[in-house]
Amino acid sequence: MAAPLLIIAACILAMALRVSAVWGALPSHLASHFGPSGQANGFSDAPAFFVLYALIGTLTVGGLLASSLLIRALPDKLINLPNRDYWLAPERKARALSTLTRWSAWCAVWLTLLLCAVLELVLRANLAQGPLDNTLFVALLVTFMTGMLGGLVWLVRAFAVPS
Fold first, then answer.
1. Domain residue ranges of the chain, discontinuous segments joined by +
2. Which of 18, 22, 60, 113 is spaced 20 to 30 A from 102 at the CA atom?
3. Collapsed DSSP state (helix, strand, coil) of residue 111
4. Which residues share a beta bridge with 43?
5. Residue 163 and residue 161: Cα distance in Å, rounded?
6. Residue 32 in contact with residue 43, Cβ under 8 Å?
7. Distance, CA of 97 to CA of 89 (rounded, Å)
8. What is the pLDDT of residues 21-43, one digit of tens each?
9. How far apart, in whole angstroms, are the C-alpha atoms of residue 111 and residue 116?
10. pLDDT confidence of residue 69
11. Residue 150 and residue 81: Cα distance in Å, rounded?
């Protein structure tokens, strides 16, 4: 789990450095919500925007990372995974929980990368005082969803019962 945590930490540092580098050039009220055309249709005080963005990121990414710790404290009947009885047998439970921990950590990486990329798009739109690049935004969402779908396929396969 060290690699995902390092990637997440590097992304957070990169976001903080990027925001601090452009802080003086940003408008006091940021475009914080964009419509389908990419045009801003919601605005926020700059400090409030970044506090909310950091809070949302912390809760979502932190929640994914914490879920792998929480699952270790749950009774087996509350853990939902393919072939649960097989994988939560005492001789395989540690391996199963380790697999879930690894999967959650990499999902947190994907989410962190998405949050970084979206923040960059928002910063660019605000610095140019123009629309959000919706083509790139949609490409990011498709990439994120494809990665998450691939992760789910990997997870289902990881919990198949060996023949």
1. 2-158
2. 18
3. helix
4. 31
5. 6
6. yes
7. 11
8. 999 999 999 999 999 999 999 99
9. 9
10. 85
11. 16
